[in-house]
């Protein structure tokens, strides 16, 4: 970059993107990368050769957030002193143009488009890239916007011991001088810049032929055992997904090779065409529990759905790219539910992701699913529970509203017409409407362009919909009617248009509105039904109905109608009979949360004891045992409970770490046991578990150590222990030692200035959730200061709203 370039790269505006797309058409990228400098250093170099067409005489710019050493346009050197805002001006274009830019990037440790990681167990170096929304420009020159698709051809020089992976199969691997090899990859189809990828390192490799595809799995050497343990499960889900989507979308995935690379310190997964990159946290360090396998299956199928919706057909701009995530979230659960062991996947989503969406949607951080996105940095603030989970639920409602046959017919027509192109929301909704024979314009506006959660109320024979802003949304749902013993008497389908509908229901002990959970709304039945559901929801005959009752109870907690102990009691009376592994762990988690954060301080330990007692009841249940033991380890109080967990820890080392953390919280941290555990734990991130165990106690030095790692040095990895550390840090009853950290939290998040989509959020998780009223003013002042980047600002708004609701519940 030139000396006049700003410290932060410019965020592309929608206006600029539209003007550039009108001015040029990109044919291909030929990108040569040299990764040899990353074996022992921090720098990679790139030579990006871009072939593109333009109206003769026009001008535009190319993006490059790297140190540019040379640039030529049609053979003429460009003046590098003209670089501004990490953009290279391209004046006086010809009809056909060739741009060649040589650049280097040394910021390879902050997850800004690329991360170089050194495995602490064996010093092996791994490199992964992830470019959503606009981080390809950090590694090479490109027109970094989703509607300028082009063929990509990569040639990568890397250390000889490394395997290099990209979107397509390697066309050839040749030796180069000085201990390096050159990997040349086949041309990709036309792709947006944000879904191309290069990953490299001395990976463990597994390849298999399944369902006509060449499937690859990769992980770092220190996780060989976990990869080999989980290979069959991952391949089974992958084969299922490729067949399921290919058949139902009317278009098989058009590339034979499909790789999945599990990499260190990634916050989630990324849908790179033909080479999905996953966090290796999904290679669970101990034998995965049923919920963990379900979570991984969901992620595998989510990223795979993007191959069609996002990669093959891509929305033109970020105001519509929310659809990528909403659709992939819907498709993942839909396809998961076709696997026998995950047949109740929708129920699990109801009490996890859907609750997260409700939390955000009733807060000041809510926003329409589709909104105005003037620039890329604003787009990233919108990638939240509204985009993913509410969007998923709204598509589920659309499927119910027009019928699955019409829904799939619309998708098939959409993919067939727009493959390898770019679209807008109207293209998709037009395809759905044509297949259903309905005008969906009003549906689209009501559901996608307005924020807030409807309340659907049953009084007598009338269903009434109340919207926070008066929006009249149509709803397709079912009302289930139950006898006193919980037997289903009738299921009544209802279409609500115009805000209300008459219903003909049988006499029953209780009616449950939205019993199959196909719409997104809070619901309330008549008083007698509500009383029965409050005390006897455990008798409901389906897992989904029981999940809906818990959702409604949680929404009552959010609205201040009940307190934390009421929610705990509601969940625990269901758990007396519930056995589905899709919901048992989420139910226990909600009860934990209500006990610790929504309960008056003097009653917290009593509620935690109740949760622990409920967990004991599942320790002899094969499908739920492992998760129940982890809950018990976090809340155990009696010697019998501790002994039960200790006995099980022989098969799950995570239990040992959780027991150490619980001991620390109770004032008896065992340093010798922690040291011994570090010696025998093969997890590359075992040091994070040790940090978590220390941080759970009230010792100031331990709190400060954890704070330095997570919030100052920011070297906390995206791992299971890393995600759990904030909860271990902010323990109830430790306010004396924790008091200074609320202000420090606000200072730390104010310093966050950016990062790719998969680098968001680890620090924001450290919100001082157990703090009292005293922090509210400071958080409000921080929000008013104008220093927070959009995604941090929106996250803090949502967390503050939840905190206020928690304080009100604690005061009940």
TrEMBL record:
A single cellular component GO annotation: extracellular space
The Gene Ontology biological process terms listed for this entry are: peptide catabolic process; proteolysis
The Aminopeptidase N-like N-terminal domain covers which part of the protein?
Answer: 123-195
What is the protein's name according to its record? Answer: Aminopeptidase N
**Domain named ERAP1-like C-terminal: residues:** 512-804
Which reactions does this protein catalyse? Release of an N-terminal amino acid, Xaa-|-Yaa- from a peptide, amide or arylamide. Xaa is preferably Ala, but may be most amino acids including Pro (slow action). When a terminal hydrophobic residue is followed by a prolyl residue, the two may be released as an intact Xaa-Pro dipeptide
Q: Which family does it belong to?
A: Belongs to the peptidase M1 family.
What CDD domains does its record include?
A: M1_APN (cd09602)
The family database entries (Gene3D superfamilies) matched by this protein are listed as: Neutral Protease Domain 2 (1.10.390.10), tricorn interacting facor f3 domain (2.60.40.1730)
């Amino acid at each position: 970059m030139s000396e006049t370039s700003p410290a932060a790269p410019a965020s592309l505006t929608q206006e600029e993107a539209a003007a550039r797309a009108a001015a040029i058409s990109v044919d291909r990228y030929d990108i040569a990368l040299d990764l040899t400098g990353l074996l022992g250093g921090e720098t990679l170099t790139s030579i990006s050769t871009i072939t593109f067409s333009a109206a003769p005489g026009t001008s535009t710019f190319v993006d490059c957030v790297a140190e540019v050493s040379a640039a030529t346009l049609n053979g003429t050197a460009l003046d590098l002193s003209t670089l501004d805002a990490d953009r290279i001006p391209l004046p006086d274009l010809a009809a056909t143009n060739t741009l060649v830019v040589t650049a280097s990037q040394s910021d390879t440790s902050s997850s800004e488009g690329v991360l170089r990681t050194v495995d602490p167990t064996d010093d092996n170096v791994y490199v992964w890239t992830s470019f959503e929304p606009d981080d390809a420009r950090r590694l090479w020159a490109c027109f970094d916007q989703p509607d300028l698709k082009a063929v990509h051809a990569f040639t990568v020089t890397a250390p000889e011991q490394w395997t290099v992976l990209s979107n397509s199969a390697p066309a050839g691997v040749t030796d180069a001088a000085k201990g390096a090899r050159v990997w040349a990859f086949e041309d990709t189809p036309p792709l947006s810049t944000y879904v191309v990828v290069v990953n490299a390192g001395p990976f463990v490799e597994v390849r298999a032929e399944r369902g006509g595809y060449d499937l690859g799995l990769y992980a770092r050497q220190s996780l060989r055992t976990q990869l080999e343990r989980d290979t069959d499960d991952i391949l089974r889900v992958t084969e299922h997904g490729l067949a399921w989507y290919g058949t139902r979308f009317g278009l098989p995935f058009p590339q034979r090779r499909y790789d999945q690379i599990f990499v260190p310190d990634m916050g989630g997964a990324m849908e790179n065409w033909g080479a999905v990159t996953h966090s290796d946290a999904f290679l669970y360090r101990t034998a995965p529990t049923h919920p963990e396998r379900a979570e991984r299956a969901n992620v595998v199928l989510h990223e795979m759905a993007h191959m069609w919706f996002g990669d093959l057909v891509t929305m033109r701009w970020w105001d519509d790219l929310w659809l990528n995530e909403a659709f992939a979230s819907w498709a993942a659960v839909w396809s998961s539910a076709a696997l026998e062991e995950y047949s109740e996947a929708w129920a699990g989503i109801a009490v996890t992701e859907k609750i997260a969406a409700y939390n955000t949607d009733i807060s000041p951080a809510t926003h329409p699913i589709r909104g105005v996105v003037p620039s890329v940095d604003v787009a990233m603030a919108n990638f939240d529970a509204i985009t993913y989970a509410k969007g998923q639920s709204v598509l589920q409602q659309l499927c119910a509203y027009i019928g699955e046959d019409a829904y799939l017919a619309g998708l098939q027509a959409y993919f067939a017409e727009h493959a390898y192109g770019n679209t807008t929301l109207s293209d998709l909704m037009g395809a759905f409407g044509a297949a259903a024979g309905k005008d969906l314009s009003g549906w689209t506006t009501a559901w996608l362009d307005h924020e807030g959660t409807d309340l659907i109320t049953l009084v007598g024979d009338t269903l009434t919909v109340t919207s926070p802003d008066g929006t009249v949304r149509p709803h397709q749902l079912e009302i289930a009617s139950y006898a006193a013993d919980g037997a289903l008497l009738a299921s009544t389908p209802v279409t609500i248009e115009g805000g209300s509908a008459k219903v003909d229901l049988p006499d029953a002990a209780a009616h449950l509105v939205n019993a199959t959970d196909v719409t997104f709304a809070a619901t309330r039945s008549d008083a007698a039904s509500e009383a029965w559901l409050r005390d006897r929801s455990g008798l409901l005959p389906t897992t989904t109905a029981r999940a809906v009752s818990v959702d409604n109870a949680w929404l009552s907690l959010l609205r201040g109608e009940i307190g934390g102990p009421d929610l705990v009691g509601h969940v625990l009376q269901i758990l007396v009979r519930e056995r589905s592994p899709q919901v048992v762990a989420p139910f226990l988690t909600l009860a934990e949360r209500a006990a610790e954060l929504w309960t008056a301080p003097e009653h917290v330990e009593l509620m935690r004891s109740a949760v622990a007692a409920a967990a004991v009841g599942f320790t002899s249940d094969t499908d739920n045992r492992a998760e129940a033991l982890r809950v018990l380890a976090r809340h155990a109080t009696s010697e019998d409970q501790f002994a039960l967990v200790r006995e099980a820890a022989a098969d799950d080392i995570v239990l040992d770490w959780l027991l150490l953390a619980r001991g620390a919280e109770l004032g008896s941290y065992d340093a010798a046991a922690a040291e011994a555990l570090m010696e025998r734990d093969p997890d590359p991130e075992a040091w994070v578990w040790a940090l978590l165990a220390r941080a759970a106690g009230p010792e100031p030095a331990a709190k400060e150590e954890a704070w330095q790692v997570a919030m100052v040095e920011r070297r906390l990895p995206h791992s299971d222990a890393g995600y759990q550390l904030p909860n271990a840090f902010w323990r109830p009853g430790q306010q004396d030692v924790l008091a200074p950290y609320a202000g420090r939290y606000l200072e730390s998040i104010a310093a966050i200035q950016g990062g790719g989509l998969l680098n968001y959020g680890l620090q924001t998780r450290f919100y001082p959730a157990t703090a009292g009223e005293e922090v509210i003013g400071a958080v409000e002042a921080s929000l008013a200061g104008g220093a927070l980047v959009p995604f941090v600002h929106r996250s803090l708004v949502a967390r503050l709203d939840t905190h206020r609701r928690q304080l009100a519940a604690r005061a009940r």
